[in-house]
Amino acid sequence: MASGDDDDPIIQEIDVYLARSLVDKLYLFQYPVRPSSMSYNNVTHLAARIKPKQQKVELEVAMDTMSPNYCRSKGEQIALNVDGTSSEDSNTYSTKMMDKQIFSSIQATTNTSRYAAAVFHKGELHLTPLQGILQMRPSFTYLDKADTKHKEREAANEAGDSSQDEAEDDVKQITVRFSRPESEQARQRRVQSYDFLQKKQAEEPWVHLHYHGIKDGRSEHERQYLYCQAMDTTENTELVKTPREYLSMLVPPVAEEKVVKPMGPSNVLSMAQLRTLPLGDQVKTLMKNVKVMPFANLMGLLASGTDSTTVLRCIQQVALLVQGNWVVKSDVLYPKNTCSSHSGVPAEVLCRGRDFVVWRFTLERTLMRKDVAATIKLPPEDVKDFLEQMSVPKLNRGWEFLLPTDHDFIKKHPDVAQRQHMLWQGIQSKLEKVFNFSKEDFMPKKDAQMEPVHMSGEQRLKAAKDNARENHGTMQRELDAHRLKAFRLPGASSEAGTPTQVKREHMSDSEEPMETGSLTNGSINGYLNCTSPIIDPHNGHGTSNAPTPELQHFVRNTFLKQYVLCLDELKRLFNLHLASLPTGHSVYGHVTDRMLQDTILLSQCKQILVPFPPQSSATADEQKVFGLWESGETFDKHRQVLFEIFMKNYRVRRNVIQSRLEQELGDAVTKTDVDRLLKECCTSSGGMWYLKGTVRS
Which residue in 615, 680, 691 sits closest to 652, CA to CA? Predict the structure, then answer.
């Protein structure tokens, strides 16, 4: 150390003084968008203003409109957009040209305690602390003013179209709303909002200033205040410290250090803070924040060694058992004398509505939001808040309970489960009186059908082929047994004078679609031969309801005209045909959906298993599409190729159809053939082609 001091001798000592004359008035201006070689010292400053509390400064600087770099047409256009054609004192640009620019400040830093302006003069260094460091940037508020002018002109034009000569104003209905008391949490959010801060900033008035150039006499006079006026050390004690005081400032004692706790949300506790609370408060705080929790997870959050029996006593005071999991009670979330943050509904009403939602989850896994809202009659925001606390939305299934049923807890603690069940019975009786319902209204129906399974066209076709292949042997034996007597059965006919209608038979959504592509027992090309008995396409057994020749004739003639029909459209045409018959003329007998489908297959038609999209609104009958497979003409091959395309695609483009036809039938396919095919069997929408009946017109 000694040798180091000898090698680095002190060359000069400089006295440092602290100037205080401008301590509250000195600002440092920075121009980050302007190079230092192009300062604004020699530019004319037209006006200056400041908001001292916000440390916000604006400078109006003149622009050189005579410069060759200035575009006069653009300047005139901007002035016209901002001020319009009127000449008023409040205009931004009085010369009808953009001849000035406004610079607005932002704070470069909020803590300027480490910054000072220094002047070195005659071996002395004078320091003046800075009040603020401001960055001056161009302001484009004139564009906002131009936009406002444009909107005002449009509004004036619209108002000019309406009559201005009405003798008296029309009577209008108004809605009166009474504002509810603002909670402390809502007030804090409002105070911290952007709109509130903008409003507070706008309330501070501007203080207008006079600008003096760098070489102005007033500026020279003010610069003298950068020097310390009291050179006596008795008055300049801030920089005069003893070695011990100076060392203490450089390295503060450890005892004086204070641990600053990190700021966090007011409703959040660390685990260390949580475990300082009594056990009952710990359970209540956890359930209030989590809202739904299995008992095992709750024990994992508490300190190790906590007695589970004691925890069970505590949790039953703040939560209810739902499907083996614990859900926080409504009165814990919504204490008395509080209200909804969404709608202002009182806590008592919120508790009843939420209790209904929790009770419904004791009966079933999923709920429909509209059903809940129809019963409790609360605003949608509150209903959604209830459901989000304990469930998650599932596509096409409503809201599903958040956690799986905890059967282990129910088996391990049957006494608790029984006690909670009795508690729910009491809550249910109160809810029934309040909302006027019975438990049976919400019990799941025993005969409810299974949800439909969405399958693509290829999957449905493959499943049908596999099913037919498995039943092939049985179907062949039954075919031989019933071949002779199939058509000996007399056609069932209704009494004269009785109108005939197609009977709608509702089929289960879980049934497989009819197999029409791989039946070889008595079928030709996938459709039933007229010499074959009527086969039930779902189970392979014969049926005694044989279609009449008149029904076959109607179906055959209809498909020779339409080529493609869905079952729903065919039934509509059949009913129209029946309505046109003379009174008392009935030769069709009792016609069912199944009989009509069998007749279609007997008429050399085939079901086209079109893969409808999952979001399709088509009914079950509208999704059963049939096409004429063979009519006896050479154009049948074109239709068969088209039907095969639509067994894999719900919609296709014309070029796909044409290329597939050329691939299957060769280059002999002409544009006329394609046009005829599309006209007979398809319809166009949005540049895509669909089979007739698969898209609603």
Answer: 691
For residue 225, what is the DSSP state?
Answer: G
Q: Reduced to 3 states, what is the DSSP secondary structure of residue 139?
A: coil
Measured between alpha carbons, how far is 406 from 619 in angstroms, rounded to an integer? Answer: 39
Q: Is 666 left (phi over 0), alpha (psi -120 to 50) or beta?
A: left
- What is the rounded distance in angstroms from the CA atom of residue 52 to the CA atom of residue 105? 12
Asked if 174 and 121 touch (Cβ cutoff 8 Å), the reply is: no
CB 350 within 8 Å of CB 383: no
| C-alpha span between 604 and 627 (Å, rounded) | 9
Question: pLDDT class for 391, splitting at 50, 70, 90?
Answer: very high
Rounded to whole angstroms, the Cα distance separating 472 from 478 reads 10
Whether residue 500 contacts residue 595, with contact meaning beta carbons closer than 8 Å, is answered with: no
How far, in whole angstroms, is CA 546 from its chain's centroid? 55
What percent of the chain has pLDDT above 70?
76
Angle between helices 347-363 and 369-376 (to 10 degrees): 140
Q: Name which residue leads in pLDDT, 697 or 633.
A: 633
Beta partners for residue 57, in sequence order: 50
* Interatomic CA distance for residues 70 and 58, integer angstroms: 23
- The predicted pLDDT at position 312 comes to 92
As to burial, measured by CB atoms within 10 angstroms (0-12 exposed, 13-18 middle, 19+ buried), residue 431 is: buried
Q: Residue 282 CA to chain centroid, in angstroms?
A: 35
- 109 CB contacts (<8 Å, ≥6 apart)? 115, 133
What distances in angstroms separate CA 193 from CA 54, 186, 212, 494, one per listed residue?
17, 11, 38, 78
Backbone angles phi, psi at 31, to 5 degrees: -120, 85
Instruction: Report yes or no: 382 and 347 within 8 Å, Cβ to Cβ.
Output: no
What confidence score (pLDDT) does residue 539 get?
Answer: 40
| CB of 128 closer than 8 Å to CB of 23 | yes
Which H or E run includes 142? helix 141-161
Q: What is the spatial distance between Cα 271 and Cα 288, in angstroms, rounded to a whole number?
A: 15
Are 672 and 632 in contact by the 8 Å Cβ rule? The answer is no
Output the CA torsion sign for 507, 511, 513, 518.
Answer: negative
Between the alpha carbon of residue 107 and those of residues 41, 51, 408, 422, the distances in Å are 21, 12, 61, 65
pTM > 0.70: yes or no = no
3-state secondary structure of 502: strand
- Burial state string for 653-689 with b = 16 or more CB within 10 A and e = fewer than 16: eeeebbebbeeeeeeebeeeebeebbebbbbeeeebb
Contact 326, 295 (CB under 8 A): yes
75-78, Cβ contacts within 8 angstroms, sequence gap of 24 or more: 75/99, 78/142, 78/146
- The pair of three-digit structure tokens given for residue 178, joined into one six-digit string: 């009474």
Instruction: Examine the pLDDT at 161 and tell me if it is beyond 60.
Output: no
What's the rounded Cα separation, in Å, for the pair 551 and 599?
Answer: 7
Q: Which pair of tokens denotes residue 621?
A: 């009958």
The neighbour count for residue 558, using CB atoms within 10 Å, is: 20
Q: What is the DSSP string of 17-51?
A: EE--TTTTT-EEEE-TTS-TTS-STTSPEEEEEEE
Could you tell me the CA-to-CA distances from 558 to 38, 436, 589 in Å, in that order?
A: 88, 55, 19
Secondary structure (DSSP) of 335-378: -TT-B-TTT--BHHHHHHHHHHHHHHHHH-SEE-HHHHHHHH--
